[in-house]
Amino acid sequence: MIDLISIALTSIFISNILLANFLGMCSFLECAKNIKTAMGLGLAVTFVLTMTAPLNWLIHNFLLSDGALIWLNMGDINLDFLKFMTFIAVIAAFVQVVEMALEKFSPSLYAALGIFLPLITVNCAILGVSLFFVEKEYDLLQTFVFGLSSGIGWLLAILGLAAITQKLKYSNVPKGLRGLGITFITTGLMSMAFMCFAGISLTNK
Amino acid sequence: MSFAKSEKGKILIQPLVASNPIMVQTLGICSALAVTVQLKPAIVMSICLTVVTTCSNVIMSLIRNLIPGKIRIITYMIVISTLVALADQILQAYVFSVSKQLSVFVGLIITNCIVMGRAEAFATINTPYKSLVDGIGNGLGYSAVLIAVACVRELLGSGKLLGQQVIPDFVYILTGYTDNGMMLLAPGAFFIIGIFIWISNSLYKGEK
Q1: Around B40, how many Cα atoms within 13 Å sit in the side-chain half-sphere?
Q2: Which of A51, A111, B89, B140 has its CA 20 to 30 Å from the CA of residue B146?
Q3: Under an 8 A CB cutoff, do A88 and B30 touch?
Q4: Cβ–Cβ of A176/B201 closer than 8 Å?
Q5: In chain A, which residue's Cα lies nearest the Cα of B78?
Q6: How far apart are CA B74 and CA B81, in angstroms?
Q7: Sequential pLDDT tens for chain A (205 residues)
């Protein structure tokens, strides 16, 4: 249990997927203009991350990784090189299915999240999490927690930036720095603030 | 008419500065921030991305009349991820240490918006030769920023370039100069890119 909480804390605060690993920057910069959009996109990312990370874990561990096909008596086949293609296909297909399901069953939620869903396929945070759990060798439950808390971390970061950007409208930013430049400096400062969490550790090493 | 003035020359040169993929179009930021702690991984990453962009541009341009509009995004994904898987295997075989350092970011070339963006915006409506030039141009534009950022970060952060000591020892001893550790951490990357964008905006504001 303690290691799950530790994974959650680490991926929300200490190595925040956006502020420490730089994943999902593109849509982060585009959509952090008002809080409502940021909230919608953040929730959509969290949802897709929570679902696709375990899904990809199952595929990776039962089909792709070294010796995974042992249940088919083909343990000596290593399909690891296919992981990029499979992961991105799973993510794209999942996003498509969610979009269709939302449109059919919950039009109000679709109206709120619908426009963000296509953006998510190419959000590097989603693919990044799927590649990270392979590298960190998490088990299924850990992957689930990792996906969920990475999403929450991303949501937290984009909400923070959206709030700061709205306040920044009233300040006098140097001309060349307006727009993208100041966004980067702000993100840098946020990232520094998040580094304060770096000392926190739940496990006594 | 010199090469730089010709149409192909323009396609090649424009992405280097005036419509630089990172600074102006804000595509492919993630990797620009993440792999620039040292110069060597940045160079390897630049080469990978340039090759992948160029190849995917040419392939997409060749098959642009064959694929229906509705499934084009999936087609890009498949083409790009095949190329990236190839690049990853080659890196693991020949430069294993750098490949470990780049970790997931080679895989993330798939979702790097530059590759996708150029395929969507340029290769699907232009001839293969022009797309080839466009791919090289954008790859080089990306590489230029990546290498510049990596130079600044490695020099200020650890006093080295490509792993070689650049700032001599006596500077540290005589003047009490110390490396700026922040450059090696995440915030340093954000600040450097922010400052780069500031500089390029100030230099080119007349053209906007």
Answers
A1: 13
A2: B89
A3: no
A4: yes
A5: A85
A6: 10
A7: 778 888 888 888 888 888 887 887 777 777 767 787 788 788 888 888 888 888 888 888 888 777 767 777 776 777 777 888 888 888 888 888 888 887 888 787 777 666 677 777 777 788 888 888 888 888 888 888 889 999 999 888 888 888 888 888 888 888 777 777 888 888 888 888 888 877 776 665 4
Domain coordinates in residue numbering, chain B: 25-207
Contact B30 A176 (CB under 8 A): no
Beta bridge partners of B161: B164
- Residue pair B58/B139 in contact by the 8 Å Cβ criterion: no
The long-range contacts involving B199-203, CB below 8 angstroms and separated by at least 24 positions, are: B199/A176, B200/B17, B200/B20, B200/B23, B200/B24, B201/A176, B201/A177, B201/A181, B202/A175, B202/A176
Nearest to B34 among A21, A122, A188 (CB): A21
The ipTM is 0.79
Q: What is the value of pTM for the model shown?
A: 0.81
Give the number of A-B residue pairs with CB atoms closer than 8 Å. Answer: 122
CB of B113 less than 8 A from some CB of A: yes
